[in-house]
Amino acid sequence: MAAAAGARSPLTRKLNRCFPEPGPLLQAPSGSVRKPTSLAMASDSGDRNSTLKRCLGVLRDARNDSEQLAALLLVTKAVRAGEVDAKTRRQIFDAIGFTFPNRLLASRQPPAGCPEHTFRALGLTLLACFCTDPELAGHSQILNKIPTFNDILVSPCNPDSTSMIDDVYQCLSAVMATTRGPRELVTKGTVSALCQAYVNCSYGSDRALTLLLGLLAVAEAKCWQRDAPHLLAVLSKLSDDFLKTEDMTKFELCEVLPHFIPLSPPLTQDSQGSECLHRLYKGLANILGSKLSQSQRDPALKLAACLVQACGSEWIPAGSAGSKFLALLVNLACVEVRLTLEEPDPLEVEGKKELVTACYVLIEMGIQECLREEKPLLEDVQKMQLMRIMEEAFGAVLFYLRQVKQEELQDPFIFASVRILGAWMAEETSSLKQEICELLPFLVHYAKKLFKESSPAASLPQPELVSTEGSGLPQDALRFLLPGFCHLTAEDRPRDILISEGAPALLCEYFLHQWEVLTSEPGSLTPLTSTEMSLQTACGIFLNLVVTAPDLVRRDKTFSSLMDMLLKSLPLLLPQKDHLVLAANIATLGLMMARILAGSAVLQGTQSAKEFFGAAIRFLSQAHAAQAEPGSDGLAVAVSPAYASAWADVRELWFLGMQALAGCVPLFPWLPQAVLQARWLEDLSELLTRVTPTSVDFELIAAFQGVLVELARASKPCRDVILSHHGGEWANLYGMAALEQCLSEQ
User: Are 234 and 191 in contact (CB under 8 A)?
Assistant: First the structure.
């Protein structure tokens, strides 16, 4: 192709001699054009391909510039008529190549009496003809014309230059269909040009919108990253049209608008974006508050779901109107789910999967809003009504999932249904308990299958329910089931089902995998992600099993593998910033498991065990500090600054960890020495000596005493350190009777 493009045919050489640069490309002398009889006759006959072949012959054999121009004009006339077959197009390219169109585009001096864009129009027509060949459309000579195409789109359009615009859109459409095309169009500024063409209602603006939709479909993030202001201008026009139109265009715009609603940057952070959202809210409220056919309602629900994915419920205003609209959205979504899934017709379900997936998004918003306590959009009565309605919808989801066949497990709609059920199980722990227990074997099997196979389940069309962030890939069904499993493992019957179905072993494997994902970037751990949240929730499940099913932990070898991983991970995790909650989970879980697995080889004074306990001691010992007591000259015990922001999530784990550490002291003879090396006893003595006793609550005193008593009993050096730091005195001062008695014994 490159050879063809760059080859210099006799015609090309002759044309280059006839039209020297930088002078005029072609001046047709008045009265000098000799129109070949054969061409005229062929044109009259209507046989365009025959005409083109003769024109190409004239191009090759022309005796002067005028004959060449006449032949070339006939060629472009036939090309514009669209009656050129692929073979003839190729012959045109072979006869002309890229050099001549390039010079036509560069020329600024038209023939006498012709419009100034004559040569440009001629060059564009030839390029548009070439672009109908996919191989030529991706050629560098076409790609480097993209800035020229953009300039023409944003230039004022005269009535006699519309054919140029048509040719530009044909070229851009052809380029976008090539492998490199979309990337080249985005990087060379075509998105901006298309946006301007659409916003200005320029000639062919409908084609500009079509091209924008295509580019956003394949490169949404890059488009918004480079051209957010221009895309916002398009969204502003679309939302304005959406609000104002009162005909079928309103429903057509419901199909278009989701493509212009970005997940990032958030529209709510921009005043223009916020105005767009308000217009979309008012337009949707008008639609959904009216009597509609299904074909009119469905696109509106999909648009609403898209807005929820991008902005949560922030686009819905507070107040009576907003709360009624939100309740209506969730209500309509629940009705649609029930109608589709309660008596599933396979063909009907297949055609409605995208719609029901959008309804799942709206229902999940309903769950979150019913649980919202700070500045709620819904009133308490509305919340109670919606919870009942959603419960009925989830009954339909459960019924549908019970009908799923083995060969359907790869269907992304099954994944979306499991995901929304996981959201319900995470928050509503009392309703549909019997039905959920019956479905647990399927849920474990499904999650295991996807995790083991890491299946690339296909993404659903917009609106997309499945997040692509972190571990939220289509195979990660467990991520969405973990919160519900955490609740269920605290209850006897569902816990027994999960254990019998092999959930603990699966969760151990999943935990190990997620830890690898979290630590995959060398040198640092990533910020809080879904991966870290999954690890925290999995720790909660394991803690439930440790407390309620210790025999399982003792006999199942997968827990030994988990213990080994916990020993290695805490020393790495604890020094990292912003991971205190996960560190608290791992420290507490490790200490609790160590009491059960004390006899395992990995805990017999190994280096990894000592490093883990050293890190656990640091976590527990550094949680409290002395600080000035308000309104007093004294000091009070307070949560350390490094722990303050996370204390609400860490507090319960810290107290549980203190109990677990106290239980470990008698089991590991080397553990008191680790406490001595950390100088925790000296630091704790100093803390309790300096602060006002009334500032230390009873629960904290009991936690300290539990550890101190076990250390004093198990280790004479620990007992001596406590006594040497006035332990007897402050034990009496704080009412630590058990410690006081232990210290008094010889």
Answer: no
Return all residues near 622 (Cβ < 8 A) that are at least 6 apart: 640, 642, 643
DSSP letters, 88-135, are HHHHHHHHHTTHHHHHHHH---PPTTS-TTHHHHHHHHHHHHHHTSHH
Q: Which residue has the tokens 């429903």?
A: 251
Which two tokens mark 502?
Answer: 């092999």
How much is the pLDDT for 505? 94
Structure tokens at 217: 């479909």
Return the half-sphere exposure (C-beta side, CA atoms, 13 A cut-off) of residue 22: 1
SS3 for 404-439 is CCHHHCCCHHHHHHHHHHHHHHHHCCCCCHHHHHHH
Task: For 468, list phi and psi in degrees, rounded to 5.
Answer: -105, 10
What are the C-alpha distances in Å from 502 to residues 404, 497, 541, 550? Answer: 21, 9, 14, 16
b/e per residue 282-295 (b: at least 16 CB within 10 A): bbbbebbeeeeeee
With a cut of 70, say whether residue 84 has pLDDT above it.
no
Residues paired with residue 639 on neighbouring β-strands, in sequence order: 624
**Interatomic CA distance for residues 356 and 362, integer angstroms:** 10
Q: Tell me the three state secondary structure of residue 644.
A: helix
Amino acid identity, position 482: L
List the structure tokens of 388: 């009942």
Q: What is the Cα–Cα distance from 674 to 728, expressed in whole angstroms?
A: 23
- Tokens read off for 87: 């073979």
Q: What is the pLDDT of residues 30-45, one digit of tens each?
A: 333 333 333 333 444 3
**Amino acid 605: pLDDT:** 79
166 vs 172: CA distance, rounded Å: 10
**What confidence tens digit (pLDDT) does each residue in 411-457 have?**
999 999 999 999 999 988 788 999 999 999 999 999 999 998 874 44
Give the Cα separation of 656 and 542 in Å (integer). Answer: 14
Q: What is the largest CA-CA distance in the chain?
A: 129
Cβ–Cβ < 8 Å for 176, 214: yes
Confidence of residue 54 (pLDDT cuts 50, 70, 90): low
CB 307 within 8 A of CB 277: yes
In 3-state terms, what secondary structure has residue 538?
A: helix
Q: Which of 450, 459, 440 shows the shortest CA–CA distance to 402?
A: 440
Who contacts 310 (Cβ-Cβ below 8 Å, separation ≥6)?
261, 262, 263, 266, 267
Burial letters 659-689, b for 16+ CB under 10 A, else e: bbbbbbbeebeebbebbbebebbeebbebbe
Q: Specify whether the CB–CB gap between 258 and 300 falls below 8 A.
A: no
Instruction: Collapse the DSSP code of 746 into the 3-class scheme (helix H, G, I; strand E, B; otherwise coil) and give the result.
Output: coil
Structural element, H or E, at residue 639: strand 635-639
Contact (Cβ atoms closer than 8 angstroms) between residue 538 and residue 482: yes
**Residue whose C-alpha is closest to residue 95's, from 124, 72, 119, 120:** 72
The tokens for 430 are 């009392």
Dihedral over alpha carbons 153, 159, 161, 163 (to 10 degrees): 90
pLDDT per residue over 177-188, tens digit each? Answer: 999 999 999 999
Q: Where are the alpha helices (DSSP H) in 313-379?
A: 320-341, 346-371
Burial of residue 14 (number of CB atoms within 10 Å: 0-12, 13-18, 19+):
middle
CA dist 443 → 394, 431, 513 (Å): 15, 18, 19
Per-residue tokens: 264: 């990032």
CB-based contacts of 282: which residues, under 8 Å, 6+ apart? 243
